[in-house]
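explain this:
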Amino acid sequence: MDQETHHCGRLAPQRRRAAATRLRGLFASTEAGAAMEFALVAPLLFGLILATLQIVLVFLAQAALETACEGSARYVLTGQAQTNFQGVYNAQGALVTTPQQQFNTYICSQIQGFLGCGYLFGDVSSGSSYSTVSLAEPTWTFDVNGNVSNTFTYSPGSQGSIVVVRLYYFWPVISLLGFNITSTVDVNNNSTMFDVLIATSVSKTEGY
């Protein structure tokens, strides 16, 4: 009886050590599985967070552009742009600042600081009726350095004209695993991707 008790007592620590080894192996296996699962899910999770942040920023940029467009269009339809933007001439009578450049400076002052003016473009066209003005988006062209090379118009019209004020902003976007969450413009063969934000105002100029 004593020998049997001594034998059982000697096996008990061995069984405990074996059980502890199995538990450590189980925990290690669980941690390894969790790490592998996280490695598989993490890119999708980070991509979702980045896409959400990018959508929020685009929404804020679009709202800021709409506000700037409203202010710029108001300046045109009240005749202030036509009256104040006559160009700047030097002492020799040469034109040094065109009315279009003056208007571009004005719309830059209307835009919120986080956007900046480097990617901002304005276009003003007019007509005698709503059917004579165009709202078509231009076909974008770029020079060898990736800068926009389109020619924009500045024709604010006169009293009673139908005026279209359009602001374009090239918002840089990040391609997520080869997919783009917005309609983008490809510059320099995918080296730079932009979402073209557009704000439009169509109105009839007041008497001034």
Observations:
- DSSP finds three helices and six strands in the chain.
- The two ends are 118 Å apart (CA to CA).
